[in-house]
Design a protein that fits this description.
This is Outer membrane lipoprotein carrier protein LolA. The protein has 276 residues and is an alpha+beta fold. Helix content is 23%, strand content 37%.
């Protein structure tokens, strides 16, 4: 593809997940959420252009996080039970994986284990390969550079760090509930979708905070599987999408597995965190 395309991933801040994957120290005040990708796989955009995108994205996120709308009931009675049950979720643990690619280039991949405790503000712990990498508690945010804990409270908020919360997952599925098929076994349900409904892709594009920029995603094939247990709790989602425009192809894969509900131990700030 001749036109540079922006692969925006706000599953977690790029700086934090770069530390998760590479154990390298990011530059100061680096909440980069935009990875410019060209047809040769290189990042090839000016700092001014990327900076402008970041500022606009962060402003939008701040505005949208001020108000949390109640999840609306759907025409799917069985999934309405999941919506009702979500109100009782105080904490959970999850594993989140995301992969996005343009053409035949190597995909951009993000992976994290998450502990989340609801609150005002909520507490969050992100880990990778069994090691703590990011911790947020009582409005204080720290990330691990591979050598030390850094206080980034002034430059990063939890709302811009992690979007694939349980509430947001339920909301995304509720938005497309009328398009899902359901199979029930001993009280547990499997919701599935396969097709080209643009609303389905839009729901998960928003959930995973991924955009392929100038790529035309109007023609996209989606496949979704949602596993719900007998207690009306979402246990896992598997989503994939792909398509082509006049210049090439794109592919998105995302999965989340919720492993623990309402049994998460208190999240503590690291003892050796760097104090400013």
């Amino acid at each position: 593809m001749k036109v540079a395309k922006y692969l925006l991933t706000v599953l977690a801040s790029t700086a934090v997940l770069a530390a998760c994957q590479n154990d390298t120290e990011p530059e100061a005040e680096s909440d980069e959420e935009t990875v410019p990708v060209t047809d040769d796989g290189n990042t090839d955009a000016s700092e001014e252009e990327v900076s402008e995108e970041q500022e606009n994205d962060l402003n939008t996120e701040a505005d949208s996080s001020d108000e949390t709308e109640e999840i609306e009931q759907t025409n799917n009675d069985s999934f309405n039970k999941v919506i009702d049950q979500a109100e009782d979720i105080e904490s959970y643990e999850a594993a989140v994986n995301l992969s996005a690619a343009i053409d035949d280039e190597a995909p951009a991949e993000l992976s994290a284990e998450v502990s989340f405790i609801n609150g005002d503000p909520p507490s969050l712990q992100l880990s990778s390969n069994g090691e703590d990498r990011t911790i947020s508690k009582d409005g204080h945010f720290y990330f691990y550079t591979g050598e030390e804990w850094v206080n980034a409270t002034e430059s990063v908020s939890i709302d811009s760090l992690f979007f694939v919360t349980y509430e947001n997952t339920v909301r995304a599925i509720a938005d497309i509930g009328d398009s899902l098929e359901v199979d029930t076994t001993d009280g547990a349900r499997t919701y599935t979708y396969e097709g080209t409904n643009r609303d389905v892709y839009s729901a998960f594009e928003e959930l995973f905070k991924v955009s392929f920029g100038t790529v035309n995603t109007s023609e996209v094939e989606s496949k979704l599987t949602v596993e719900v247990d007998e207690n009306d709790l979402i246990r896992s989602i598997e989503y994939s999408a792909g398509g082509e425009d006049a210049e090439g192809s794109f592919q998105l894969e995302g999965s989340t597995e919720f492993t623990t509900f309402n049994d998460v131990e208190d999240i503590e700030l690291p003892e050796d965190a760097v104090e400013e």
